[in-house]
Predict the structure.
Amino acid sequence: MKRLTVLYDADCPLCVHLRHWLLRQRQLVPLDLVPAGSQEARRRFPALDHAATLREITVVGDRGQVYRETAAWIVCLWALAEHRPRAHWLATPAGQPFARMTVLAAAKWREALKGPGNGTGPDGCADGRCELPGPPG
């Protein structure tokens, strides 16, 4: 694998934060970060379900491999020099439950950022921008 394309939700603060984090890491496999559902994503990958790419992280390999959810996070870590050993562990039976729980926790956080009550836009966010939830209580 020579290159990966990460489709991320550009209207999600958590997703944008993780995009910036990925870009700061030393990459063993170059990552192209493209907003999910964008014209660029549709041009590059016309056969993908672009509505689904807005709901879950999707990574596409240079030979057409498609990774979603937990597998997408693991392959992103695998592309990074410092995190490749962790990715290998997360792909094992011992690491898979931890990887899955991490992805579920991120999805809950994302849902809190974009869920109903946080705005009035089509995705639950006013003007397509989401605010971080305040501390509980």
